[in-house]
Design a protein that fits this description.
Elements: E1 5-10, E2 24-29, E3 32-38, H1 42-48, E4 56-60, H2 66-69, H3 72-83, E5 88-93, H4 95-108, E6 115-120, E7 127-131, E8 135-141, E9 149-155, E10 161-162, H5 164-169, H6 177-181, E11 186-187, E12 193-194, E13 200-201, E14 208-212, H7 219-224, E15 230-234, H8 242-247, H9 253-263, E16 267-271, H10 281-288, E17 294-296, E18 302-304
Helix pairs in contact: 3-4, 9-10
Binding site for Zn(2+) 1: 63, 65, 144, 214
EC number: 3.1.26.11
Protein name: Ribonuclease Z
Length: 306
């Protein structure tokens, strides 16, 4: 079972091509699937990646341009026919997106064997929009031609590790273990306090992943994603076309690398490539000159954060 895995299903821009599909990623967190953007071909890419439809529970849409959301009606229709019985799929989107997709689903697929809920994201939101016991998802604003949001998927602090010999020596009851893992000291029946540091080792670090879809270069974005383990940042163009990129509210590979550098992230993944390029070698060279730990996304790429 994947603990925290990013599956890249589409990393092109604007339209599907023979090399790349439009934007789509699936985060596999402890056997629960969360999709980020849903461009055309998303459902077929899920099949190719052997990601089970039945485990999909959340879909986060960064914005309402077709290459980021037009795969959603087909995916939901297929789930209704073959893929998911019971439960809920929550779609996190702007209010306009909820209105559009409610109308489409009401026309094409009025009845589904699962519930569809819409969680409305207000433009400009910079806050946690969903959380579980172990994970939180934060939205933050990007700068594009229409309201657009980025997402940070961050593990909550983990429990400390029990030192077996120490808890045996101090005769710690099983009923106290969870509290000790969470950082509590142990108080013996005679009142003696055993410090937590004597009973446990530090917890494993919590991991984080940031998704920056369509956006111009912005130091505010760099501040928002500061310190994440892996940053996905759009790199539609090479820097030779930075004027075109800015005019269309996109970024170059060099600008994506500058965001990674400013934010102090550990690893950069480039994506959202324009169809005008035959390959991503130029993007990689440009970005690595600024931020060496850079890779290019491709359909089928998997990254395990744990």
């Amino acid at each position: 079972m994947a603990q925290f895995q990013i599956n890249y299903l589409g990393c092109g821009s604007a339209t599907p091509t023979l090399r790349h599909l439009p934007s789509c990623q699936v985060i596999d967190f402890r056997n629960n699937l969360m999709m980020v953007d849903c461009g055309e071909g998303a459902q077929l890419s899920m099949r190719r990646a052997r990601l089970k439809y039945s485990r999909l529970s959340h879909i986060f849409l960064s914005h309402l341009h077709g290459d980021h959301c037009l795969g959603l009606p087909g995916l939901l229709s297929t789930l209704a026919l073959t893929g998911k019985e019971g439960g809920t799929i929550t779609i996190h989107t702007f209010k306009e997106g909820a209105a559009i997709f409610r109308r489409i689903m009401d026309f094409f697929c009025r009845e589904t064997p699962f519930d569809i809920q819409y969680d409305i994201i207000a433009p400009g939101t910079n806050d946690v929009i969903w959380e579980s016991d172990a994970l939180e998802v934060r939205a933050f604003p990007l700068i594009h031609r229409v309201p657009t949001t980025g997402f940070i998927f961050k593990e909550k602090p983990k429990l400390r590790h029990i030192i077996g010999d120490a808890v045996a020596f101090h005769q710690v009851p099983v009923r106290e273990m969870q509290a000790i893992k969470a950082g509590a000291d142990f108080v013996k029946p005679d009142g003696t306090v055993i410090a937590n540091e004597r009973l446990t080792r530090p917890a494993d670090p919590s991991m984080s992943y940031a998704y920056c879809s369509d956006t111009v270069f912005s130091e505010a974005v760099a501040r928002a994603v500061e310190g994440v383990d892996v940053l996905y940042h759009e790199a539609t163009y090479l820097d030779a076309e930075h004027e075109k990129a800015h005019m269309r509210f996109h970024s170059t590979a060099a600008e994506a690398a500058r965001v990674a550098q400013l934010a102090g992230v550990k690893r950069l993944v480039l994506g959202h490539f324009s169809k005008q390029y035959a390959d991503e070698e130029g993007h990689l060279a440009e970005a690595r000159a600024i931020f060496p730990d850079t890779i290019a996304a491709n359909e089928g790429l998997r990254i395990d954060l744990l």
